[in-house]
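Before the break, one more example. Copy the sequence into your notebook; we will annotate it together after we see the structure.
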Amino acid sequence: MTTNENVRIGLFGRGRLGTAVVERIGLTPGVELAWVAGRGEPPCAGADVVLDASSGSAVAEHLRWALETGTSLAIGATGWDTSVVDALAGRPLDIGVMVAPNFSLAVALMRRSALALGRLAARESDADLSVMERHHSGKVDSPSGTAKLLASALADGSGRHRGWISGAAETGAISIASLRSGQTVGYHEIRYEAPFETIVLSHEALSRGLYARGALEALVWLRNRRGVYSFDDFAAEVVDPLFYPRNEDQYRDNPFLTGEREGGSVWTRRAV
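Here is what the structure looks like once it is written out:
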């Protein structure tokens, strides 16, 4: 993470993620902590960009503050009404707003994998798709925002699912199973189960430092941008190239990657 001057970070929330971000700022060159505001505490001036790591019920108020003060905001809270951001669609904005159910680049990779598994399921009508997630007993919202993100990617890929459902299975919906127990930071699993094969992909966060690192990288990226973004927009710059050949000449000369092979496209660069 490089910048000519320190990026001043404001922070809503003193919970698990907020505490991890404060600790990470002290270890990260190029950023500094401007202020931290807990529940009921007013934000201060002087932040270049702000992270909302508070409770879902406070997101709408914090977004109004960001719009009024011209301060870019990344929303890392869970269990909030996303319609407050949806309402900004098409509006010219003087700030950047990022929605981030998860700040892990590996989870961004998982989302692309979920999209691919969904597309595979589109070829196999008997295949079932599902998501399982496990978090510590103190996590209030269920399913997690990340589980919903992965389920939506599975549904988008398959084309035969209209969304997700928690609880009993329902035709046309991606089933999400949730568990709240112990001290698990975050575990997510996506499943493709067909008559002759099963594919299971999982991701487990071992420390909230993972999310804190990703949050700081995303905040620096968001600082001078305008409009509404997802963490995936930031992650695309890192994750998408992983799917391309390192050598561009190799890419151009390989019909299996360019889609120019006789008989139709195998894979294109925009597939992810």
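The radius of gyration is 20 Å. Confidence is low (pLDDT under 50) at residues 256-272. Try to locate both features in your own notes.
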